[in-house]
Queue: 3 jobs
Job 1
Amino acid sequence: MNRLRRPTPHHQDDHRLDDGVRRAEFRSRTGTPGRSLTNAVLAGGVAAVVSGLPSTLSAVRIGGDPLEASLAAGTVLLRDEQRASRLLPAAALVHAGMSLGWALVLAATLPARRTMLAAGLSGGLAGAAIAALDLGLVGRRLPRIRRLPVLPQLADHVAYGAVVGSVLAARAGRAGEVVAVRSVGTAPERVFEFLADLRNHWLLEDRFVELRGLDGDEGSGPRGGRVRLTGPLGISREARTRVLSARPPTATRPGRLAGRADIGRRTTGRVAWEIAVGKDGGSRVTLRAAAERASLLDRTLLLLGRWWLQHTFDRALANLDRILEPAPSVRPLLDRKAAG
């Protein structure tokens, strides 16, 4: 079997990557007024897009008009208007304004949560409270809103609050970073040797990761590549990856492989593998990724699909353990057969 190649260490790149990851983590845990406003606007925008699904699906299920809730919202500005051509633009203004306004309120009042799930639950409860105000104080004064079914409208508000809470948590807390940790029953040196050859990485997630090409020379091995990532609903993005540093493990210091991935011109992520000494001669492997900057599209996909990314990382580590697991020896069986 050919010996696996590993890239030559580049300590300057290693320090630069470490500083970049630390800056990204620091920015994700702290905030400035401008960043908090940006987070609220983003959260309100994402929630505005998806929060109307419950009432829309309910209307379709019972054979009603899926636009009725939007037409009713338009009467907030045009109380006596009946023409859809005027009510729909008015509804868009009302929906955008209320989505942004309530997102600012939730950003200022929701308690900090450690996970996106907890933040989503808190936001959902806040959304129910918003529904009481919107439908109770405003809606009862407008006949068209008053005639809407209550439960679908309540579900819209709960969904809105849950999405806002989750997005705020992902932007302001450690939820913006994806981390997977697993104990692997293989020595750190062997794990590092396997991961140092980029050709082996595609074995860990071949179902959702398609290798399009490798960059590098024959002497030092590949230092990067072009990869197509396929996520939920068949959404795919092409990334260009590059190894920035490779530090073999020692008895006193974990090994580290670090790199970056560029998707288009506006999205950049940092990825790092850490291989430390584990129990019983094995390894403790950590896979960590953080987005340094992202386009609006990729940021939205990351926020909505973080659960998938976490699952993908966990599965990659499980596959790593399975691939490197030593084959059971047949020697004891042969010895027993010979003795018998």
Job 2
Amino acid sequence: MKSALIITSEYLGSANEIGSHQIAKQLAAKGIKTLVISFPMSPFYRLIQKRTDYNQRVFFTKKTIEVEKNLFVYIPKTVLPPLPFIVNKAPFYLNLWDKFSLSWQKVLPTNTFDFVFCESLFFPRLLQQVSYKKLVVRLPDNFSGFWKKNKTLLNAEKKLLQSADIIVTPSKLRAIELNKEHKQKRVLHLNNGVDTALYTNDYEKPSSYKKSQFNAVYVGAISAWFDMNMLFEIATLKPNWQFTIIGKSPQVSAPSNIRFIGEKRGNDKIPYLKYANVGIIPFNNQEHHALINYVNPIKMYEYLAAGIPVISTAWAELTLINAPIELAKDIDSFVAHLSKMETSTTPKAPLIEFAEKFNWKTITQQLLTEIANEKY
């Protein structure tokens, strides 16, 4: 049986379902024994359980756990995780933190894999301690937009790319740049996607949606690049709409027609998408241009798979994708799109058909074909 090691940022089971999680599930479904290792946690995380998902994560810290057939999960536990601000001030710790954890030899079911799929910069020692035929490095985002002046992590990215056999990214814009920067490497644009089969099931309409004729939904991270001020202004200008925000609830005082309902895991978010009038992506591309300009948002494919129209702030990557969505250059145009949707109906079929082109099953097969075509 073939085997794969996936090294990622979020633990598999997180409400924030990222691309590597979806690829891991598809690999396991194809009969490939797949181990997913994610960013380490600390026993001190117990003091901030809600923020760190301590109770959900601690289960995976003692040994590898098989969560589905052929799909295994392990989360390292160390006294002090290699948080970005720590390794920026103490670069040596990036290669030291796992010495204060269980040894890889004790927890890994094997130290030999057919290929490693790595999208995290925090595991340089692990890559030195396992054997593999191919190293696939996935850049899910423009890391320089994330880490900015963090020289340690930016240098770690350079080293990781130098050791890669194949470089993949969901960003068309980033793929163009990587092809120029790494002419000797195989660079593959591997799109983000969605499991469209999940959206064909019947779901009950959320009771909260029955209170408003018009419902807008957002699902995903509520981080610095989420334009909270824009959302508040839009909600104030459109009091006849209800805005349901799915993600870790921030401590803010919001207009009464904005509902922060917390995270939804697995399929629990799907009813909120299927019964919404529109899916929104209010990202701040002005202040976070270096990051957002390259984003190929998974949530967009999820909205489209649910058959609902999408309104997003505009950035370069979305222009290249050319999806059937509405791009808003400012608050006024965002509000105008909402107003238009009050009196018109968007056909669902073209939206769903677009999403079906980017099914995770097809995307994973594209990756495996690329790996097979590379000589071991």
Job 3
Amino acid sequence: MLSLLPLTLLAAPQALPPEGAIPRAAPRVRLHLVEDPARFAALLGATERGDLRRVDFEEVQGIGADPVLIRPERYAESDGLILTGEGGQYVHTDFRFPHDYAAGDSRVQFAPGPIAPPQARGWRGGCRTQATFVHAGRPARVAGFGAVFVDADWPDRAPCRLAAYDQNGVLLGETAGFSGANGSRLFRGLVALDEDHQPAAVIARVELVSGDEWPWVDVSEGVVLDDLVFSPPTSGQQWRPTWFAGGEEREARIDAELAELAGHHPWAGSYYQGDGTGVNVSLKLAPDGGFYFSWHGCLGEYDRNFGRISIDEAGLIHLHCERPNVRKGFQGIDELLAPVRWGDRRYLLPPEKVVSFLAEEGGRWEPRDSIWGFDLLRLGDEDKAVAGAPERIVE
């Protein structure tokens, strides 16, 4: 089964038949489950965009009766891969079970530590691996990742799993519970494609669960890994799906209206809240032009939205979003805001926060003396002194 969450919409995971993608009404990045290595390469356009990166561990020397420990960053410089087992990273030819862990064309295979003794009871050693990516010394992302699971044949007892996450730790999709015959070599890959069916480099981390024990513990389900394959990592500006495009004309109209108002309006303006790193929320709004919202972080733009505004009888500002507004993770904006005056400062607050803000006169963090803060404050007002107590604007 493949569960999927699109890049810009967090919703309940949906079931998916083998090989395919979950359809969405709006353009989204879609994560595809692939069970054939040739199709995996084709979806990523490997022949047109350069060879895929492949780690098969064949270059490791000195393997004898015992597994060889390798460093997590062994393949960082050559392939952009950091491979981290929960208790070390080990390679061996057959992990003492040559009939189960058939090497196929490969001589060397992989398993995460820690190592457990063959007759272990209770504690069974390692079975979880994390793959992350680097490019030019910086964290990076890939458009697809796949691996061969060797001897995954007891899914009811210990299901194997392959899961992909974005740079914010949000689950993009997973496949789990797959199985084959004794000694089988099952390829499973996840590929992210945009609405034009082009590879989208949004996968920042991959988790692999191989059974539930160290491979040579003869108690439950031991599984080893082989032939890790992935698209070349990239660390440039965050890939932005086509769905993010738009809103520039509205933003230009708002900028022009704000320039004409020249600050002579009770709440119109450009507002900001954030920490200068992963949270940088900007909101521009004007009575006729509407609003334009964007969220930027360390890797680029995470979200944007725009639309018209309306004012209700209580003086609350309603943002009528033209795009789905999902407030989870590094995205989304409050659609209902209360304008607050504090001297010459202007704030926009969710209605549920207004009472405490007024009663506590800004609470612990306001009035702030820099741009950074947890409430939407009109740009430039951080330099203005406050006078008296804050009050709601109802105009």
